[in-house]
Description:
This protein is mainly beta. It has helices spanning 2-13, 143-146, 166-173; strands at residues 30-47, 61-79, 82-99, 104-119, 126-129, 135-136, 161-163, 183-197, 200-215, 218-232, 237-256, 260-278.
Amino acid sequence: MRTLLLLLFCAAAAPADPVDFTPSEKEGDRSSTTEEEYIDGKIHYKSVRGRSKVDFGKRKQEFLSIKRWTYEQKIVPLDPTHLAAERAFSVATKEELEEDGKGHKKTQFPHHQRTCKVGRGAVVNYAVIDGEKPEEELQEQGWIDVAPCLLPKEPIAEGKEYDIDAKTLIKAWSKGAFDEKNSSGSGKGKFREVVTVGKTKCAKLWVNVTMKGEGKDLPGIETSLQGWVLFAIEEKKVVKLELTGPITLKMRVKDTPDVGDVDLTIDGTLKETMTVDLAK
């Protein structure tokens, strides 16, 4: 009996095998993805030059932006050596603006339904939208393409920590607007545990990243995001993501009527969510 108990204890205490977090896709893979981006913040103004009848130091605006993307995706051959993600997607946006507590200005943008083909691989890296010219980089990407940047680059075991390349992350997140020359940041992740979502066995990762980007003729951005990423271990795909944290956006609006150049700053909270339903 003691021997049996000892064997059971050793089996329970033995460390689990490392998990390989390299995403994998094969021809015919299908998925349905929903993403939401929520920004709730305050807008601050500072006149740089010109005269204004508005006291920008006392002017207050509250800003709310909600964006929702849905993707129906199928992996198809692009050429003999590359795959592509063929997507039918829609985008909806809702914005609200309140100034000095005097009512809301609401703007509702309808769903824009389009299809695109996103190339895969180091050489093929672009999006082709029906009826439009091909764009360099991934102009239609969302967290569906960015999330893999949050994964460990090497196999790790449960309980282990790893580094996240924040510069690679912000380049993907900003659709190439910020690269290694005009961005900075840091990131850490930890493989917390293995969980089962429905019938899917997932690795649950806790991530914490800080990103900053600024450049000529570009709005400056700084954010610090924390949250969870779920990675399907057998399917080798990110299936859920939830990140939240503070965000600051800065930009200069030039030659506004009566005011001249104005520095605009948005301070608020950013929340990003993504859920992927894998077709079985």
